From TrEMBL:
Coiled coil (residue ranges): none
UniProt keyword annotations, A-Z: NADP, One-carbon metabolism, Oxidoreductase
Lineage top rank: taxon: Bacteria
Segments forming domain DHFR: 11-201
InterPro entries: DHFR, DHFR-like_dom_sf, DHFR_CS, DHFR_dom
Similarity field: Belongs to the dihydrofolate reductase family.
SUPFAM superfamilies membership: Dihydrofolate reductase-like
Name of the molecule in the record: dihydrofolate reductase
Length: 203
């Protein structure tokens, strides 16, 4: 994984879990329970700034937000919601591009998010930024080429949903790795079959 010192901007990854037909959400929540995916999500994003849309922020349980050990940046076009978000301990921005700029800026060790120091370079800038969704934010990130990679938990589940992940076209994206390899599956304690894929943007 390139580091901040090797490139002009920090590496930006999107992370999501999807059921069949790229379903990622329904009624403001995720229509499955997969603790193994939460553990994977925590391990991948720990210590890094995270950027998410207002609806995804609201989908987090109140007790879990802001997500601990990470600088939480929330995109909203609504100034009264922005004040609520700030009051709850996250940073509100009015666009995804601004969110990524804010996330890339060095932050001082005295910040509430100082737990993020583990993945900052010597100037205090983060080496990695994660886009946490949801559908609207992933779509914009793909459309505008704002992310270097997509880390996708593929869940072998047929479920109704009102929110979908963007399609990663073969022209722009390539499957870099799959765990397990060769289209196999992990089986969760509750029986859900899933695998962890990493896709890299070609250009
Ligand atoms: N499966 C997964 O891994 C995963 C991950 C994340 C989310 N989800 C699911 O996805 C769903 C939420 O996704 P969503 O598409 O409905 O919403 P979202 O992308 O989380 O948030 C959309 C909101 O972000 C703000 N926003 C987005 N683009 C903006 C822009 N260009 N300028 C200003 N503000 C902008 C707006 O907030 P305002 O309306 O406040 O202006 C907009 O309503 C939920 O069901 C959630 O559970 C699933």
């Amino acid at each position: 994984m390139p580091t901040h010192t090797e490139r002009e901007h920090p590496w930006v990854g999107m992370i999501w879990a999807q059921a069949r037909d790229r379903v990622i959400g329904d009624g403001g929540d995720m229509p499955w329970h997969l603790p193994e995916d939460f553990a994977h999500f925590r391990a991948m994003t720990r210590g890094c700034p995270v950027v998410m849309g207002r609806r995804t922020w609201e989908s987090l349980p109140e007790a879990a937000r802001p997500l601990p050990g990470r600088r939480n940046i929330v995109v909203t076009g609504d100034s009264s919601r922005a004040a609520e978000i700030e009051g709850a301990g996250a940073e509100a921005v009015d666009s995804l591009a601004t969110g990524l700029q804010v996330a890339a800026a060095p932050s001082s060790a005295s910040d509430a998010s100082s737990a993020a120091s583990a993945v900052r370079d010597s100037s205090g800038a983060p080496e990695r930024i994660w886009i946490l969704g949801g559908g609207a934010i992933y779509a914009e990130a793909v459309e505008r080429g704002l992310a270097d990679a997509a880390v996708v938990t593929v869940i072998d589940l047929d479920v109704d949903g009102d929110t979908r992940a963007p399609r990663l076209s073969e022209e722009d994206w390539r499957l870099e790795s799959s765990d397990p390899a060769d289209g196999g599956w992990h089986v969760a304690e509750n029986g859900l079959r899933h695998r962890f894929e990493r896709h890299a943007r070609r250009r």
